[in-house]
Amino acid sequence: MSPTATDSIKTNLGEAGSHVKQAASQAGQAAKGAASAAGEELRLGKAQVKSELADGALAGIAALEQAGAASREQVDALMDKGRDLVDSAADLIRERPLASFGMAFAAGWIIAKLARGNSK
């Protein structure tokens, strides 16, 4: 007896169901593989971010250390200028004591006037 149309439909539907089931299985495996690859990429990216942040922190620490040295250099330069200014003032006082006394007296008088004018 030859297969009937109903038997052919059942066979074809069974085969189609088998193919759909296999396709679903393959899709699930592909999704798992993609998720695994994405997870691996995420872990790699996280490690790279941590590495860059650590390098940035080290560079920042090095910059702070250099800033301390630079500030010491600036303070030393200012101290040298201050010493030079005091030395030149001392030389001026030795050369012209009366003029220096007059200028100091005038400066004191002006400061006193300003202080009294602000307190009223």
Domains, number: 1
Q: Tell me the fraction of residues in β-strands, as a range.
A: under 5%
Mean pLDDT: 88
Q: In sequence order, what are the helices and strands, one letter per element? A: HH
- The low-confidence parts are none
Which structural class do the helices and strands define?
A: mainly alpha
Number of helices: 2
Number of strands: 0
Shape: rod-shaped
Distance, first to last CA: 129 Å
Largest sheet: none
Q: What is the helix content?
A: over 70%
Integer-rounded radius of gyration: 45 Å
Can you give a write-up of this model?
α1 packs across α2. The chain has helices spanning 5-95, 97-119. The chain has one domain (5-119). With 120 residues, the protein is mainly α. The model has no long low-confidence stretch (mean pLDDT 88). The longest helix is centred in the middle third of the chain and has 91 residues, at 5-95.
In short:
By secondary structure, the chain is mainly α. The chain is built from 2 helices and no strands.
What would the keywords be for this entry?
120 residues, mainly alpha, 2 helices, 0% strand
List the helices and strands and how they pair.
Elements: H1 5-95, H2 97-119
Helix pairs in contact: 1-2
